[in-house]
Amino acid sequence: MQEPTARTWAWAIDPREVMWCLTLTRHITPDEVLDRYGASSRTAQLLTRRQATQLDATERVEGSVLRVGALEGWSFCFEDNGVMGRMPGPLSALSQDTETLSILRGADGMNGFAHWRDGQCAERFEPGFTAPPSPHPWWDAVQQRIDPSEGSIPVLIAVLEAVSHHTGAVLSADTLTGPLLTVILEEHRRTPDPAPGPDTARAPAQGRLLGPALPASSPRPFTG
């Protein structure tokens, strides 16, 4: 893995970026990522980021533009101005028989991180705020990087550094701007959120946390 630098993550905190959402899932293919979101991989087109933006403006549907690719044994999905990658339905489906990481830069200034495993939310929090219920290894890893005693860095870069350390993958600006499999997924077609069960949600911590941990949807076999 190349050693990340401050320039590597500059895209993440670019003030021109209103919001974005990123998921990374271990050992499934980009086609499977689209299928687990609820999109059809058969309709995906290979588009640059500029072309994807133009497609979004042309179609004008209520939904999200999903752009997927592969990095070091992980597949990622990136959304400009979309939040499907933080929703329990897609995250539960993505993480079946594997693990998924979700990072959100929110338009309202609220950022988010979640770690899902085998269809269940293992940890979720807003970086820089109160820790979630223990154990919270991801919060610890991020907090260590934004601790002033260690040399403070922007919170989203701290998250991406922790994710890169775990995955061995670096999502660069060149990868994001280049051609990726792209599809528009309408909101009503995305993988629905499972109904909450009595024992599925973890107790909330103080601070601003993301949505509830929810049970898994039906698993899909790994074919990659």
Give the SSE layout.
Blueprint: E1 20-26, H1 30-37, E2 45-47, H2 49-59, E3 63-71, E4 74-80, H3 88-94, E5 99-105, E6 112-117, E7 120-125, H4 137-146, H5 155-167, H6 173-177, E8 180-186
Antiparallel strand pairs: 1-4, 1-5, 2-8, 3-4, 3-8, 5-6, 6-7
Quick synopsis:
The chain contains six helices and eight strands. Helix 1 packs antiparallel against helix 3 and helix 4 packs across helix 5.
Number of strands: 8
Roughly how many Å apart are the termini? 22 Å
Estimate percent helicity: 10-25%
Order of helices and strands: EHEHEEHEEEHHHE
Rg over CA atoms, rounded to whole Å, is 17 Å
Strand adjacency order, main sheet:
2-8-3-4-1-5-6-7
Report the average pLDDT across residues.
84
- Give the low-pLDDT segments: 199-224
Number of helical segments with 4 or more residues: 6
Largest sheet: 8 strands, antiparallel
**Global outline:** globular
Q: How does the helix and strand content classify structurally? A: alpha+beta
What share of residues are in beta strands?
15-25%
> How is the quaternary structure best described?
single chain
